[in-house]
Specification:
Elements (H helix, E strand, L loop, with lengths): L2 E7 L8 E9 L4 E5 L4 H4 L1 H11 L8 E7 L11 H11 L11 E3 L2 E2 L5 E2 L4 H11 L2 E5 L3 H4 L6 E5 L2 H8 L29 H13 L3 E4 L6 H6 L10 H14 L12 E2 L7 H5 E2 L4 E2 L1 H4 L4 E4 L7 H5 L2 H6 L1 E5 L4 E5 L3 E6 L18 H8 L4 H5 L3 E4 L5 H6 L6 H19 L8 H7 L4 H14 L3 H17 L7 H9 L4 H4 L1
Parallel strand pairs: 3-4, 5-8, 8-9, 10-17, 10-18, 11-14, 14-17
Antiparallel strand pairs: 1-2, 2-4, 6-7, 12-13, 15-16
Helix pairs in contact: 2-3, 7-17, 7-20, 19-21, 20-21
C-alpha cells in the first residue's frame, strides 16, 4: 500500500484539534516533502524520523515520500508528530498492518535511537482522545500526566519498536494502571505570621470571596509572607478546576503530576515583559496570568513593573480570560486568578517612618506612586497598610492562628456563596450585585456618604458591595448590614494613601 493515514493532534491554545498524517509513496528520485503548515520543529522531524527508523533496524523507503498534515490551514508545532510520521511511513511501505490504525491516536517525539521522549500538552491530547473513544499511544513519561483525564485509554510506550511490535501483534503494550492521585498539597502555615491582625483579617476576607488585595508598607513587615500563605486558605480545588489548571501547565510544559490539585502560586519578577505576563510568541503560549489560573498571581514590588505590563492586567481581571492574537494565529487562555500585590510606600520604603529614615523627596514619592494608574487600583478590592510591628510584639508575641481553622471558616463562607449564586462574590456581575449584595438602609446611607467623600467610581461602589457581601457570608448573615459595609469601606480606604 502506498498511502497511509495516521491520527494525531496539534496544540492550539488549550485545544487539541485532530490532525491526519497522510503519507504517500511514489516512484521517482528519493525525496521527502513535508507539507501542511508545519513549523521548524515539525520540519526537522524528517531527519529525526529517518535516523530513528534506521537505528531501529527498520526500512526507510528510497522513494519519493510526501507527508501531508491535514487540515492544511491549521498551524502545527512541537515534536509530537515524530511518532505518527514514522508510523505513516512504515504503514505506507507495508512494514506494519493498517487494519487497526484508525482505532488509535499517536503522539511522541523520537530520539535518534528510536526512543520516545516526552512531549508538552499531553493532558490536552488526552482530553480530546477521551472524547473520541480512541486509544492514545504516547511516551511512557507522559502517562502519569495523561492518566489524570478520566475515561481515557492509554498505552504508554518507551520506543518506536515497542509501538511497531504492538501494531504487528507481537508484543502488546500494557495499558497504564498507575494511580493518577497525588498526596494532598501542602502550603506554608499562617501560624508563622506574628501580629498583623488587620492584615490576617484582610487575607481571610480575600480568601473567602476570592478578592484581589494590595498590601503596602515598609520592608520587612511580612507582606510577602502573607501572600505566600493565601493559597493554603483557599478551598480544595474541584476536579474540573484542577484539570483546567493542569492543562495550562501541560501546554506550557511545566506540569508535574505531584502538583495535581495544588493551587498555583505565580510570582514573576518585576522585570517580566508584557508577553511573559499575558502570554505570546509566534505560536501563542500561556503567560503568568494563565499559569496562575485557579490560583494566586503575586506581584511583589508592584510599582517596579513596567506600566504597560500592569495595564495589561486590567482586561483579564474583569473577564477571566486572555486572547492572544497574531497575524495568522489566535489563541484564548483562561486567566481567572486572584491578584495579590505588595509595594513599599516610597522608593526607599520608609515614607512616614517616625524615625525619619525616609530619604525620598515629595516628587520622588509622587512619581513612584503614579506608576499605578487609577483604573488598575480601581480593580483591586482590598487595599491595606501593613505597618511595622512594635519591638515587644515582634519578640514576645505568640504564634498566630494556624491555617487549618482559618481555611475551615473560609470553606464555610465559600460554600454559602456556591449555594446562593454558584460563584465567588468577586465574580458577580452588576445585575448579580444588585440582587445579592444590596445593603440594609443603614449600610446604604453609609455607602452614599463614602461615595461622596471618597469620590468612588461605579466600579469601586460595586467592589465595596462584593466585599461587604463576603464579610456577611463569613458571619453567616443573610443581609448585608451597616457593620459589613463599614468594614468593606475601611478595607479600601488605603487607596487614598496611594492616590
Amino acid at each position: 500500500m502506498s498511502l497511509a493515514l495516521v491520527t494525531s493532534r496539534a496544540l492550539v491554545g488549550l485545544d487539541a484539534p485532530e490532525v491526519t498524517v497522510e503519507v504517500h509513496l511514489a516512484n521517482g528520485l528519493p525525496a521527502l516533502a513535508l507539507v501542511g503548515l508545519p513549523d521548524t520543529e515539525v520540519r526537522e522531524a524528517r531527519d529525526r524520523v529517518r535516523a530513528a527508523l534506521l537505528t531501529s533496524q527498520l526500512d526507510f523507503p528510497q522513494r519519493r515520500i510526501t507527508i501531508n498534515l491535514a487540515p492544511a490551514d491549521l498551524p502545527k508545532g512541537g515534536g509530537c508528530f515524530d511518532l505518527p510520521i514514522a508510523l505513516g511511513i512504515l504503514a505506507a511501505s507495508s512494514q506494519i498492518p493498517t487494519t487497526h490504525l484508525k482505532d488509535y491516536e499517536f503522539a511522541g517525539e523520537l530520539s535518534l535511537n528510536g526512543e520516545l521522549r516526552p512531549i508538552r500538552g499531553a493532558l490536552a491530547l488526552a482530553r480530546q482522545a477521551a472524547c473520541t473513544g480512541r486509544t492514545l499511544i504516547l511516551p511512557a513519561a507522559n502517562a502519569p500526566e495523561a492518566a489524570l483525564v478520566r475515561d481515557v485509554r492509554l498505552l504508554p510506550a518507551t520506543s518506536l519498536l515497542a509501538v511497531v511490535a504492538h501494531l504487528c501483534g507481537h508484543t502488546l503494550l500494557v495499558p497504564y494502571e498507575g494511580s493518577p492521585l497525588a498526596p494532598p498539597p501542602t502550603y506554608p502555615d499562617l501560624a508563622d505570621i506574628k501580629g498583623q491582625q488587620a492584615a490576617r483579617r484582610a487575607l481571610e476576607v480575600a480568601a473567602s470571596g476570592q478578592h484581589s488585595i494590595l498590601l503596602f508598607g515598609p520592608p520587612g513587615t511580612g507582606k510577602s509572607m502573607l501572600a505566600q500563605r493565601l493559597p493554603g486558605l483557599l478551598p480544595p480545588m474541584s476536579d474540573n478546576e484542577a484539570l483546567e489548571s493542569a492543562a495550562i501547565q501541560s501546554v506550557e510544559g511545566s506540569f508535574q503530576p505531584a502538583h495535581w490539585s495544588r493551587r498555583p502560586f505565580r510570582a514573576p519578577h518585576h522585570s517580566a515583559s508584557t508577553a511573559a505576563l499575558v502570554g505570546g510568541g509566534s505560536t501563542p503560549r500561556p503567560g503568568e496570568i494563565s499559569l496562575a489560573h485557579q490560583g494566586i498571581l503575586f506581584l511583589d514590588e508592584l510599582p517596579e513593573f513596567d506600566r504597560r505590563v500592569l495595564e495589561a492586567l486590567r482586561e483579564p481581571l474583569e473577564s477571566g480570560y486572555i486572547t492572544i492574537s497574531r497575524a495568522a494565529r489566535r489563541a484564548e487562555f483562561p486567566a481567572r486568578f486572584q491578584l495579590v500585590c505588595a509595594m513599599n510606600p516610597c522608593p526607599c520604603g520608609y515614607h512616614g517612618d517616625l524615625g525619619g529614615r525616609c530619604r525620598c523627596t515629595p516628587d520622588q514619592v509622587l512619581r513612584y506612586r503614579n506608576k499605578l494608574s487609577g483604573p488598575l487600583l480601581d480593580r483591586i478590592d482590598l487595599i491595606l497598610e501593613v505597618p511595622p510591628l512594635p519591638v515587644g510584639e515582634l519578640v514576645n508575641a505568640p504564634a498566630g492562628e494556624p491555617s487549618t481553622p482559618v481555611r475551615e471558616r473560609v470553606h464555610l463562607a465559600w460554600s454559602r456563596q456556591m449555594a446562593r449564586q454558584g460563584k465567588p462574590n468577586a465574580r458577580l456581575d452588576s445585575a448579580e450585585v444588585d440582587r445579592w449584595c444590596r445593603p440594609d438602609p443603614g449600610g446604604e446611607k453609609l455607602l452614599q456618604t463614602a461615595i461622596t467623600r471618597l469620590g468612588l467610581s461605579a466600579r469601586a461602589y460595586h467592589r465595596i458591595l462584593k466585599v461587604a457581601r463576603t464579610i456577611a457570608d463569613m458571619q453567616d448573615t443573610g443581609n448585608v448590614g451597616h457593620a459589613h459595609v463599614a468594614e468593606a469601606i475601611q478595607s479600601r480606604r488605603g487607596i487614598s494613601e496611594l492616590a
